Amino acid sequence: MARGRPRKADWSEGTTRKKQAGVSDMTMLSKITNESINDNLKMRFENADIYTYIGNVLISVNPFKDLGIYTPQVLKSYENKNRMELAPHVYAIAEGAFRNMIAYSEDQCVIISGESGAGKTEAAKKIMEYIAAVSGGNSSSIKEIKDMVLATNPLLESFGCAKTLRNNNSSRHGKYLEIQFNAGGEPVGAMITNYLLEKNRVVGQIQNERNFHIFYQFTKSASDEYRQNFGISGPENFLYTSKAGCLDVPNMDDSREYADTLKAMSVIGISTAEQDQIHRMLAAILWLGNVQFVPHKDDDNMSQITDPDITAFIAYLLESTPELVSKVLVSRTIETPRGGRRGSVYDVPLNIAQAESARNGLAKAIYDRLFDWIVMRVNQAMQARSEARYIIGVLDIYGFEIFDHNSFEQLCINYVNEKLQQIFIELTLKAEQEEYVREKIEWTPIDYFNNKVVCDLIEAKRPPGVFAAMNDACATAHADPKAADQSLSQRLTACSHSKHFALYDGNFTVKHYAGDVTYMLSGMTDKNKDQLLRDHLELCKGSSNSFLQTLFPEDLAQDSKRRPPTASDRIKVSANELVTKLMQSQPSYIRTIKPNENKSPSEFDVKR
Fold it and tell me: CA torsion 65→71→76→80, rounded to 10°?
């Protein structure tokens, strides 16, 4: 699509009518210090100017209210404008990426970072909305792609976002959306890559948080048919949605959001029959949470199910037998190898804690596979309709996390953020300074921390990093999680050569670019192993439900002696593939900031 020469700005347009507070580009500050940056952002926040540049990076402060700055008129005012012609805005970043793709025939990416609650997901949505609005093409197939790209937002928010203490709509997964364009700049397809779904949330949340939104949408607003066929009632009746004590979210209408989710499924092309199966799986997960255990009447080290009617209903939902469902919840099949051949097979009874773990493991596995299926189905629907020449990628991923108690999930999230920081260093600071040297420009070198040493500390094979130590511990003490954690503690001593690592009783600390984080060793190896129990696999593959079988494509007959990839193996591969993609594109950066912990539209805490 031919793009005309950028027209001169009409300063009566859009957001330029009101006087801007402070400076709109902080490279223009007379003195650049943490204090002056904070003061400028605070001044602008109090004037409802939430966007500020610092060079080519857009700083976005969450306003926690609607400022009316995303109207069609405001969007139109940024089209065909150079970045500095109008007030800073997320639309200016989107316009720059789109225009540069056309002008220079180069792939683009927008990297959005920031802590939970800072507004990453909203920024990603606005980027997509802008590109859909200004990119050309009036054909039905191009309009269909645009509609599908926008429909991915409510769909993946329902299944991948949740209310947390920090954020009412927190993304509990990472997403890289690649919008594909033809030579004329018209969108012809798209693809989503999913990262790090927080599947543990399915089976438990801390007090006053919620499970994924879809469970509350479904339980509050299910059709009469679903209520009758799948045994659905309010969220207060299911343990997985009620135990944390939060059923509702201020300013969030679960019923309306559910209608948007169903509409998005239809836009994507998910059939009514497929929607029925999705809801059937959600119901099975909810009912699994209601299975309770007591000590077996004959042996306290064994467990039995308190209400067999619940497991019978789960068997109906999974299209299996009550006997098999009960068996996989209270026992585990163990095979003893014999000289490389199949040995004896035993059914080992589970105590209450083990049975609860097995129940939760099955629920998590079904949801994880269901989420992957939805992403696959979305990608299938958005396949390029014609030859794709260029890409604009939008990355919305967890921000850096430091909690009172940090575990394997935080290690993976922070590792990915280290990799993204490495890109930022490579493509901005390091590249810029190297260019100054080549051009023989006089300048004052800027000290920055090159965090490659931290990335190596976590991901290296030689000398073994944290992930390699975990994998070795899983392999040598695979049957006993506590023994594996002890083995991990011993193996992590090999990392002590690094000044960015410290190991002490029951914990280890990594000096990340964003701060020191202490991780608990307990449970690390079990989470890393992330192994689907064979009993669960047999239950799902043996079901009469073809949809459930599709979610678990593994071959039961395959007897591979190779160690299956661990969770850290998968995230390492995904992170490096993501880095490769991003490095092949011209980046734009949006750094989102949360001004306070109270979700207040009037507070700016400079100490944060």
Answer: 10
Torsion angle in degrees (nearest 10) through CA of 372, 377, 382, 388: 60
The pLDDT tens digits of the residues spanning 29-42 come to: 988 888 999 999 99
Residue 341 has pLDDT above 70, yes or no: no
Taking 3-state DSSP, the helix, strand and coil percentages for the chain, each rounded to the nearest 5, stand at 50, 15, 35
C-alpha distances out from residue 505 to 454, 469, 477, Å: 22, 17, 19
Q: For residue 290, give both structure tokens.
A: 């209601």
Determine the 3-state secondary structure of 361 from DSSP: helix
504-514 pLDDT, tens per residue?
888 999 999 88
User: Can you give the pTM of this predicted structure?
Assistant: 0.90
Q: Is the dihedral of CA 308, 314, 320, 326 positive or negative?
A: negative
77-114 b/e (C-beta count within 10 Å ≥ 16 → b): bbbbbebebbbbbbbbbbbbbbbbbbeeeebbbbbbbb
Residues with a catalytic annotation lie at 116-117, 121, 167, 170-171, 399, 401
Specify the length of the chain in residues: 608
Tokens linked to 155: 């769909």
Residue among 128, 180, 551 nearest 377 (CA): 551
How far, in Å, CA of 376 to CA of 191, rounded?
Answer: 9
Tell me the β-bridge partners of 179: 190, 392
Query: CA triplet 141, 154, 241: central angle to 5 degrees?
Result: 150
Give the distance, in angstroms, between the CA of residue 217 and the centroid of all CA atoms in the same chain: 20
pLDDT at 562: 64
3-state SS track over 464-501? CCHHHHHHHHHHHCCCCHHHHHHHHHHHHHHHCCCCCE
Count each helix (H run) and each strand (E run) in the chain, helices first: 22, 16
Structure tokens, 323: 């006997």
Give the amino acid at 149.
Answer: V
What is the dihedral angle through the alpha carbons of 57, 61, 66, 70, rounded to the nearest 10 degrees? 0
